[in-house]
């Protein structure tokens, strides 16, 4: 590829800016505004519209579409010429490609291991991100481009140097990138095989192996085959290997997985030492930094497959975490102190036996060979999150071991690394997650032990940060912050929903016990269904009940999103009302008050979940699913009011839930009522009248539209007569 140093400099500014592409775009704009006509054309190609719109959600797809042609062009070029910039940095096609490719990968969910995309009943938010998805978003955005006035002004600003195409772009426009992405998916799906001896790819694999292990004095016969069909050999000299690799970067990336497979197999069979493997991987990454993406992809897939023997991190063959492992264990226990979760011991009989899956050991050994300078930072930002996510998905205590190794290298990162390791306690232990949820409720409601928190509220739930800057060293982390970091690892979200519902019900009992006095409860027992409270402090109890319901609904929404909310309203709540619960038989002081408060708590819980999922109006796409769910739920309530369904819960709970949910709909979400079938509204209204809730019945019918006007008028007349 031909290009002037200025053009290459502009490209490098764009793709090597670690934080925000917008500032880089502004720099390129200033350079190109005073340049020649050719340079203006180059700038237009580079920008590709990425600077026209502020905001992450819009900017990222446009930036990705700007990077793809850069990757395609520079990755297909032979690095025959290099350019020296005014800063002294030497640029080649491989360097520009590596910068652009690395940034492109960071725009989608590349750093998560394969198992993360299929974990749980519901895929995690963002797991659908891919190059194709980013292009689809870009096409959708540009199809409606130019409508907002602010975007028109920004477009006119760049109109002198930028010709923005609003034509759709698809992956077929980038055949080399598409081929790499397909290979990336194949690497995740199955092991490599079918490398034919003597083909161009095989020759590149041999050149890569010679480049990686040129420091090895002893040789290994070429006939020693590996699972990929390649071999590890000393072959020609390093200079010859460098010359043979003056080929397009895409060709190198195509051959890289086979070279990695050969190297890892040789290490597993003792033909290559761990130190030689780590050094070889570093040499490969130094030669073509973009190969780090393939290294991460390959090792992540191999860890997920679980076919490699564990590596003993004993300090002889592999680096040892023993210096910091005990300290990391104690810090993790301190971080989780506020949750009451037990931390599994990292030692057996007082001895720390640290092992990691072989591919993970190779990857962490590679990362700790990097110096933490500005040049390495842009590539560690790709490998670091991937390593963290990969180790977090492995059995305990893989991530604490990785953290211990990295803490030896970078002490200033210790707090963050230990906090990351503390999350993995919950990844393979559902009981620990339930205990964490319980801590969220007790801390928010002020029901925690006095030495932890007694005030409650959002401050107790989310805390005020963490780290060693606190007095006495690293401090316990608030349970809400921990759950925000671990909820993606929850595999059975339906089970979590049932646990949240159960914790909500128990929290109501605790609220009643802490707010209501014995004398007040004696007076309450004499009143029917707890409808008249006298001096009972119902307002204080209801305030905390609503807080508990809002927390529960937030946890459900965070855990599973729209699908889980709809499952809750369609299935979980009806099943709960039908089932017989041991907590209903507890009696005691709370009596009917607790049963009634539980009904109100469930009403707020259901309404909050619905508003999170659908909104209060019909603007969102998700709201289109609302009528079907509401119809089924209100039909269940109508059947219960008519006695067609036998309820297992306390009668006061069912009454409080039904009247509370309908009242909240009427007062807060009137548009929901319009979407419910008229006949169902009439049935619910009739049931409310039987429970002496005439005013609520009229209000419900009044919002039902033309179809319920007659029934509402009849009810008003009956009430007046």
Can you give a write-up of this model?
- InterPro entries: MED33A/B.
- Keywords: Membrane, Transmembrane, Transmembrane helix.
- This is MEDIATOR OF RNA polymerase II TRANSCRIPTION SUBUNIT 33A-LIKE.
- The strands form 2 sheets. Strands 1-2 form a two-stranded antiparallel sheet. Strands 3-4 form a two-stranded antiparallel sheet.
- It is 61% helix and 1% strand.
- The N terminus is likely disordered.
- With 721 residues, the protein is mainly α.
- Helix 9 crosses helix 10.
- The protein has 31 helices and 4 strands.
- The protein is elongated, with a radius of gyration of 31 Å.
Summarize the structure in short.
This protein has helices at residues 5-16, 21-33, 37-47, 56-75, 93-106, 131-143, 149-157, 175-189, 200-212, 238-244, 249-268, 274-287, 291-305, 322-335, 358-367, 374-393, 398-409, 414-423, 430-444, 458-462, 479-486, 493-515, 518-525, 538-578, 591-614, 626-641, 651-668, 670-674, 678-690, 694-702, 709-720, and strands spanning 83-84, 90-91, 310-312, 355-357. With 721 residues, it is mostly helical.
């Amino acid at each position: 590829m031909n290009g002037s140093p200025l053009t290459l400099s502009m490209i490098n500014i764009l793709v090597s800016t670690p934080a925000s592409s917008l500032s880089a775009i502004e720099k390129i704009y200033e350079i190109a505004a005073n340049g020649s006509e050719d340079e203006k054309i180059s700038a237009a190609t580079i920008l590709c519209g990425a600077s026209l719109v502020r905001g992450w959600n819009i900017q990222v797809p446009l930036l990705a579409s700007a990077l793809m042609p850069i990757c395609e062009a520079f990755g297909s070029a032979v690095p025959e010429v290099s350019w020296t910039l005014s800063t002294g940095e030497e640029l080649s096609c491989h360097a520009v490609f590596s910068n652009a490719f690395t940034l492109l990968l960071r725009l989608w969910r590349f750093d998560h291991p394969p198992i993360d995309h299929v974990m749980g009943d519901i895929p995690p938010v963002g797991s659908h991100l891919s190059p194709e998805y980013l292009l689809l978003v870009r096409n959708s955005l540009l199809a409606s481009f130019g409508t907002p006035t602010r975007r028109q002004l920004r477009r006119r600003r760049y109109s002198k140097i930028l010709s923005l195409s609003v034509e759709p772009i698809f992956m077929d426009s980038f055949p080399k990138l598409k081929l790499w992405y397909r290979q990336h998916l194949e690497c995740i799906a199955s092991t490599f095989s079918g490398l034919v001896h003597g083909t161009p790819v095989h020759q590149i694999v041999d050149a890569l192996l010679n480049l990686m292990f040129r420091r090895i004095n002893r040789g290994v016969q070429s006939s020693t085959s590996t699972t990929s069909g390649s071999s590890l050999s000393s072959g020609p000299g390093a200079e010859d290997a460098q010359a043979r690799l003056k080929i397009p970067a895409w060709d190198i990336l195509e051959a890289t997985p086979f070279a990695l497979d050969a190297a890892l197999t040789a290490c597993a069979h003792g033909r290559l030492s761990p130190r030689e493997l780590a050094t070889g991987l570093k040499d490969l990454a130094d030669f073509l930094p973009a190969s780090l993406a393939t290294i991460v992809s390959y090792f992540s897939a191999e860890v997920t497959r679980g076919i490699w023997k564990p590596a003993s991190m004993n300090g002889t063959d592999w680096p040892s975490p023993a210096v910091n492992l005990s300290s990391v264990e104690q810090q993790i226990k301190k971080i989780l102190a506020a949750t009451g979760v037990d931390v599994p011991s990292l030692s057996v009989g007082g001895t720390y036996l640290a092992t990691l899956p072989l591919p993970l050991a190779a990857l962490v050994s590679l990362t700790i060979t990097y110096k933490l300078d500005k040049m390495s930072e842009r590539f560690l930002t790709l490998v670091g999150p991937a390593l963290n996510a990969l180790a977090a998905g492995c059995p305990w205590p893989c991530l604490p071991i990785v953290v211990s190794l990295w803490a030896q290298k970078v002490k200033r990162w210790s707090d963050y690394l230990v906090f990351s390791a503390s999350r993995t306690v919950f990844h393979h232990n559902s009981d620990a997650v339930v205990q964490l949820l319980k801590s969220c409720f007790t801390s928010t409601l002020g029901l925690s032990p006095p030495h932890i928190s007694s005030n409650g509220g959002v401050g107790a739930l989310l805390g005020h940060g963490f780290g060693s800057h606190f007095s006495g060293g690293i401090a316990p982390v608030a349970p809400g912050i921990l759950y925000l970091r671990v909820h993606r690892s929850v595999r059975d979200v339906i089970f979590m929903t049932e646990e949240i519902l159960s914790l909500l019900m128990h929290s109501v009992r605790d609220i009643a016990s802490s707010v209501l006095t014995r004398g007040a409860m004696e007076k309450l027992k004499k009143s029917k269904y707890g409808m008249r409270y006298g001096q009972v402090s119902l307002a204080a109890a209801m305030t905390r009940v609503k807080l508990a319901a809002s927390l529960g609904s937030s946890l459900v929404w965070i855990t599973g999103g729209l699908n889980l909310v709809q499952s809750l309203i369609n299935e979980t709540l009806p099943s709960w009302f039908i089932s017989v619960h041991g907590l209903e038989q507890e009696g005691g002081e709370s009596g009917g008050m607790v049963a009634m408060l539980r009904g109100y708590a469930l009403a707020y819980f259901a309404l909050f979940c619905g508003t999170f999922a659908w909104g209060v109006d019909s603007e969102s796409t998700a709201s289109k699913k609302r009528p079907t769910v509401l119809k089924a739920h209100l039909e269940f309530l109508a059947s219960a009011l008519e006695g067609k369904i036998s309820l297992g819960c306390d009668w006061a709970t069912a009454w409080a839930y039904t009247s509370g949910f309908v009242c909240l709909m009427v007062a807060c979400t009137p548009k929901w009522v319009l979407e419910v079938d008229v006949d169902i509204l009439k049935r619910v209204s009739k049931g409310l009248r039987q429970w002496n809730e005439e005013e609520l019945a009229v209000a419900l019918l009044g919002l039902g539209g033309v179809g319920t006007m007659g029934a509402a008028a009849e009810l008003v007349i009956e009430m007046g007569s």
